[in-house]
Predict the 3D structure of the following.
Amino acid sequence: MTDEERELRKLQMLMNAIGTLDQDNEDDEPDFYGELKQAGWNILHENPGTDCGDWISMLMEQYPLEVVDAIGSHPAETYASLEDMWDTEDYEDADTGECHSFKEWAEYFATDRSIELYDMLTEAKRKISQLEASKSPRQ
């Protein structure tokens, strides 16, 4: 193998490594919209009786970076996007598998008692999953 062929091979290996790094970086990009949806659900879960206007205000006050990263910083467009998100976007709670629009989640979390009951449901599902997991290896 000549020196030129070795150099060419090294260059090819380097280019392949760079291509692999680029692909890895694409997979590691943050899910800004997913983070915003999580923040929106958290607000509803922590603030019973929240309506759309209050929800948008709280999102913009408590999670400004998530709002800007996911939607942008133009006030009118941001507000309109969040209003649309309230009515049409679904959010699935990973703990329970429940999936509803933010408007529907707000109805579920209308009172302190409804949030307490939901948290009890979440804990019950978690315990059931643990029991099922502990039974599975024995069978």
Summary: The mean pLDDT is 88. The longest strand covers residues 90-92.
